[in-house]
């Protein structure tokens, strides 16, 4: 094993730049892809103008709620500037929180408390209007609850009397604590949600990383194809061990090398994207690495030229990533046909599973391949 390790190190020394490129590709490509995609997502937010004419606490809270919506880019400005930018189609629409907003809400008057201005190019006005209407409805509901409490106090002659402000504040506090209309997004096995109030990213970071990791593994395992060529295989036949044992030991070396870089990538990505992790996720990564190493190894055994190997590895990687839910969600597909989850090694990894059907089947195939050859040398 020592001689094989030294020989492999000599090969790596001659191909150091290429080796480092493929080892660092998953983390670099993942960071660049997710960062660029999230920036693009932010750039595609709906631009609206917001004019606040009411200087009350409830109007400020409504303004903050609109500003916190991850799908809307809010620009606060005065009325004249807002209408000019709307006319120039720099804004999709303009919303005005009218003076007396809190007073009208308190009096159960919902007419003309928020005014909207649109143009003939206001393509996203309807969803924005519905979102803002839901925030107004929330304030109206709190005010309505305060009036009902006041009526109940008078009807049942309760000694303690709560003010309108106290009831509204309590209603808002309960809503925030219970989070009835709020969802924090997190990935499987993530201890704490980390994307709250930072916008909703549509990309699964670990799915993107796994896609590049598998593609990298395929390209790094081109050594199997190269060393099966007749000219090289003749020289390897002079070894004191069977050719299959030689391949297996090199496979183990690559397994440890890629496994070490996987853990490094995992730690850096977790810190870069502020993702929490635990021991079960580390075990899932080790299992995934073992699985895709066997996939790449057994796949490369079927090729004799690197050209056909490369052009075959790319679509296989993309297909497995798509069907496994690494690039696009497939939860609905899996709920309808459960067997789809067994078509790709990505799905068990994204779910945090350590033992999967892919791992078991590949271990059996790998063992049959190795021991059948070993018996030929017995």
Task: Explain this structure.
This is ABC-2 type transporter transmembrane domain-containing protein. GO terms for molecular function: ABC-type transporter activity. It is a multi-pass membrane protein. Residues 19-352 form the ABC-2 type transporter transmembrane domain. The protein folds into two domains: 2-38 and 198-376; 45-178, 3-Layer(aba) Sandwich (abc type-2 transporter like fold). Helices cover 64% and strands 6% of the residues. It has 16 helices and four strands. It has a four-stranded mixed β-sheet with strand order 2-1-3-4, with helices on both faces. Strand 1, helix 3 (57-68) and strand 2 form a beta-alpha-beta unit. Helix 11 runs antiparallel to helix 12 (279-300) and helix 12 crosses helix 16. The longest helix is centred in the middle third of the chain and has 31 residues, at 125-155. The relative contact order is 0.09. Mean pLDDT is 83; it is low at 182-200 and 374-378.
Protein structure class: mainly alpha
The residue-averaged pLDDT reads 83
Outline the biggest β-sheet.
4 strands, mixed
Count the E strands: 4
Helical content band? 55-70%
What spatial form do the alpha-carbon principal axes imply? elongated
Strand residue content: 5-15%
Oligomer: single chain
Q: What is the ordering of alpha helices and beta strands?
A: HHEHEHEHEHHHHHHHHHHH
Q: Measure the end-to-end span.
A: 20 Å
Strand order across the largest sheet = 2-1-3-4
What is the overall number of helices?
Answer: 16
Write down the domain tally: 2
Over the alpha carbons, how many angstroms does the gyration radius reach?
Answer: 30 Å
Low-confidence stretches: 182-200, 374-378
